[in-house]
Amino acid sequence: MARRLEAEGVDFVLYNTVSESERPPHVVSVARRKHSWYLDFCLRHRCDVVHLVTVNWLSRVLMGLTAWLRRGTYILSIHGKSISDALNESGRLQSILTRWLLRRMNVVVACNPQIQQECINRAGLPAKWVRMVPAFIPPLSGRAEGLPQEIRLYLRSHEPVLSAVGWIGKAHAGQDMYGIDLLIALVTRLAKSYPRVGLVLSVNGGPPEQIRETIETARREVGDHMLLLAEALEDISSVLAASQLFLRTTNTDGDAVSIREALYLGVPVVASDAVTRPRSCVLFRSRDIEDLERQVRSALGNLAGLKAGIAPEDVVDNAVPILELYDELLGSFQ
Q1: 50 burial class (0-12, 13-18, 19+ CB within 10 angstroms)?
Q2: pLDDT tens digit string along 18-35?
Q3: Which domains, from first to last, does the chain contain?
Q4: C or N: which end of the chain has fewer Cβ atoms within 10 Å?
Q5: What distances in angstroms separate CA 130 from CA 106, 124, 163, 330, one per listed residue?
Q6: Closest by alpha carbon to 317, among 259, 248, 261?
Q7: How far is it, in rounded angstroms, from Cα 295 to Cα 290?
């Protein structure tokens, strides 16, 4: 999004709260600065529009307080299930804070129709305050240049290559939220008829000890058939573009940017039916390893057909409605 804003000539600063990656003056890493930065920003910022895109509750609450105390235009983007889950915890503190936060915003951007309706029906927001925009912006490239040598060698030495992303150690309904256990079991099964199969899993994060344990488990059970990237790539598009199939084995979800990114790159997707998915996805019954294997094998046998069948509405450029929203709120770009 930062590159798109630069191309449009928008005066902005993107504050990166999740890593030390930065590109001053437009992209600044909060992780490199003191914790007091949050309070300083809330008290002193001079932005015409503040757009918050985070799952961090401290950041959300501070932004709610800022919107309450300081005049301005505030947007909150909801990319996952955290706010949806909180809204359904009737009477609990987090549910109350969530409703309070949402009502402080000028506009809420929901990543799917379900969250959009929950913001209207459960949080009581006026429909005109809530926009539905999937959380996907086209990647800058789909080329494999710039990947670490380890990954390039792995991609060249395996066929077919599957890819996935996920967090380690997150649970939902008492099960592995991202289905890492399903991925390991799937590769074990596929290796019997695809001796060179490989799955690249980009780990977005998790407790270091659990990440190490998961890597050791994968090595023990599937060996070279699975490559876990303990440090997530900032741009996963190169790995997606080099894979034959992208897998999304979550048992709950928001919209899943990675799914739309894969489809945009022309990579077929097999995803759980835990939530509504883009029309182009091949679905399997959530947490059903038998059905997952069946759908993956079927997809591998029909890759050309699946690529040709990717629907245009599943790969739209969602930067456009966000830029239009800024334009609407500001009157015109300065």
Answers
A1: buried
A2: 778 889 999 988 878 776
A3: 2-137+317-330 (3.40.50.2000), 149-315 (3.40.50.2000)
A4: C
A5: 9, 11, 33, 17
A6: 261
A7: 9
